[in-house]
Write a structure and sequence with these properties.
Blueprint: E1 5-11, H1 18-26, E2 33-39, H2 46-56, E3 60-64, H3 73-83, E4 88-91, E5 97-98, H4 102-110, E6 118-127, E7 130-131, H5 145-153, E8 164-167, H6 184-193, E9 200-211, H7 220-237, H8 241-263, H9 271-284, H10 289-304, H11 314-323
Parallel strand pairs: 1-2, 1-4, 2-3, 6-9
Antiparallel strand pairs: 4-8, 5-9, 6-7, 6-8
């Protein structure tokens, strides 16, 4: 077991956090890795910190997002993949952390049987310096490729972007969508999983930590970004044959999750954008007339604020409406 593993990290203005991430790479018990950090033209001291790590260990290298590519983590990941030399690929975000045995254990798993395409480990949270030991997304180890596709399409996410060690040839023909600013990892995994059935090994051990920030999602710009990405995502998938023929129920759950929990509660400040998403849904013929009527009723309850009123039987009405729709 001496294969080269390429760790690809996109980064932008992470001077306060990236050193801890790179230190977790440097601490890996498996030694044969390269770490390609692709900087998205940071304006702080991120690159200086990376260069200090390169002086410390030549397995680190820094690239800069080519000007021909769109700004964003997706373009940086794609560029890093193009520059990678490893037989295996691990995507890592520049504020997250790997356990020191992460690569070693994943490689052992991927080499434990023939024809395994990729290995999945579990992720947990890192918050205020505390490493939590409860998995974000833990699923049975006997789940198949199609089971995972259904989960992603239902927005019941079975792994994070850094949870996977890929065989490079498994993802050779796939790229992150550079037009997406959110949902890019979901899109990436749906695109891959929809092409064929893969042989998957699930470790179900926590070996990486996703850093959470209480301020994420707290501002209007973030909401606008998510709505824009969701619009692009729906336009891309809602009329695809493989969804219409086999996975429409799962994709309905995805749509309903965002309508009920994200879009309609923010309708006041984003009426026109949300109206546009409504129109995409109505024109798709994915939902029945009955389901569309129930969705419109839900929207009225949520946007009017009635959903938060006690009494009036509102809770019973809302439960009745949800009962008539796919479980979101």
């Amino acid at each position: 077991m001496n294969s080269l593993v390429s760790i690809i990290i996109p980064t932008y203005n992470r001077s306060q956090l990236i050193s801890e991430t790179l230190d977790s790479v440097l601490a890996q018990s498996y030694p044969n890795w390269e770490c390609i950090i692709v900087d998205d033209h940071s304006t702080d001291h991120t690159v200086e910190i990376i260069e200090k790590h390169i002086k410390k260990d030549s397995r680190f290298s820094v690239e800069h997002r080519p000007s021909r590519k769109s700004k964003g983590a997706n373009a940086c990941r794609n560029h890093g993949f193009e520059e990678s030399k490893g037989d295996y690929i691990l995507f890592l975000d520049s504020d997250d952390i790997l356990k020191d045995t992460c690569i070693e254990n994943r490689l052992k798993a991927i080499n434990s049987a023939e024809k395994i395409d990729f290995v999945i480990a579990n992720s947990s949270y890192l918050k205020d310096g505390v490493f939590y030991e409860k998995s974000i997304c833990e699923f049975p180890s006997d789940y198949k490729s199609e089971d995972y596709l259904k989960l992603f399409l239902s927005y019941k996410l079975p792994w994070t972007v850094m949870s996977v060690l890929w065989k490079k040839n498994t993802i050779q023909d796939f790229q992150f969508d550079e037009d997406l600013t959110r949902l890019q990892d979901i899109d990436y995994h749906i695109t891959i999983l929809s092409k064929r059935n893969y042989n998957i090994f699930r470790l179900n051990d926590i070996d990486n930590y996703y850093r959470i920030d209480d301020n994420k999602g707290a501002n209007t710009d973030h909401v606008s970004t998510v709505i824009k990405a969701l619009t692009h995502f729906l336009n891309k998938y809602i009329n695809q044959d493989f969804i219409k023929k086999k996975y429409s129920n799962e994709f309905k759950q995805f749509i309903l999750f965002f309508l009920q929990n994200y879009l309609y509660p923010n309708n006041k400040n984003h009426k026109s954008e949300i109206r546009n998403i409504d129109e995409i849904i109505w024109k798709s013929n994915m939902f029945s007339i009955k389901e569309l009527t129930l969705i419109k009723s839900q929207k009225l309850l949520i946007t009017s604020g009635l959903i938060n009123k006690k009494g009036l039987g509102i809770n019973r009405i809302h439960k009745f409406l949800k009962k008539g729709l796919p479980n979101a």
